[in-house]
Amino acid sequence: MTSYRALRLERFAPSFRQAADIVELPVRDPGAGEIRVRNAWCGVNGIFDTQIARNAVDYVRIAPPTLTGVEAIGVVEAVGEGVEGFAVGDAAATVRFGGGYREVNIADAATFAKVPGPEREWLALASTGVSALLALDVGEAKTGEVVAISAAAGGLGHLLVQLAKLRGCYVIAVCGGPTKCAFVRGLGADRVIDYRSEAVGEILAEEFHNRIDVAIDTVGGAVFDGFLENLAQHGRLVAAGAAQDLEGRPEIVTAPRIVHKLYYKAASVRGFMNGLLTPRWPAARETLFELYRSGQLKITFDATAFNGLAHVYDAVEHLLSGRSMGKVIVNLQPDLEV
């Protein structure tokens, strides 16, 4: 093979489909310190992709054209001079921007992690799993504490639920619809709130007033407000995303300042940005790998199959639709049995 395909942001536009095109790029030998990986799977981050397409991510300044996608896993095809720790045939994963939505990745070996195999499970653990584990660490979740999780049936949420239960926490899970609620209960969640048929803030106020020790929120809006209002003394609200704000712009809120909800409880709101915790990734991966090997952690993938790079667009839109359950991925080698 002399070339490979990748999704490249060519322009800023309202959607990822409108902003990114499939381009053909040459396959080259890796240079000094580089490896070449043929990707088998990529993980989808639809909200981030949409914000990138709209140039609405303040902490990532890009100028088209630029390659897209964050997570991918595959097999090492070639190793450049001076590379240690990787050999041809090894499985390698990357969670660096620009390395995900492409059939081949040629980059510095330091941007990859060696993983047990090229299967999609190891990608989920090395990417979303690490985020879940470290978000709980940032929240300092401990045995016996009450932990609230939004988007609990999603790729991140369903791992958060399991990891919080493994720490001996009481888990409040927020998700939408009876199917997702049943799924999350099956993971061990103690109280499941269906935001489609129940008022999240009212239920939290009635059942968990000032009792939430740790809340991990990726949604924002009313869910964030409900978590914040019901923090316990020394409670910690971890802001890990804001799915309701696809524009990536600060929300204007006319209300008492947040200090009044924090000061008298000695509570806190903590931002979680996984990309700023890279020194902690290797240890987190090993912890997750062992939990998975021992059967203590299960990974659920969304039931919709997306085969081939061209279907990344569909996968992004499926995730944004709110219909997905578990982690959304794309098979980049649909011609092979995986």
Distance linking N and C termini: 21 Å
**Biggest sheet record:** 6 strands, antiparallel
Instruction: Write down the domain tally.
Output: 2
Total strand count, please? 15
How big is the Rg? 20 Å
Q: Helix and strand succession?
A: EHEEHEEEEEHEHEHEHEHEHEHHE
Query: Superfamily at the CATH H level of the largest domain?
Result: NAD(P)-binding Rossmann-like Domain
Beta-strand percent range:
25-35%
Spans of at least 5 consecutive residues whose pLDDT stays below 50 are: none
* Structural category: alpha/beta
> What CATH first level of the largest domain would be assigned?
Alpha Beta
Number of helices: 10
What is CATH's topology name of the largest domain? Rossmann fold
Indicate the mean pLDDT.
93
Please state the second-level CATH architecture of the largest domain. Answer: 3-Layer(aba) Sandwich
Task: Please tell me what the overall shape is.
Answer: globular
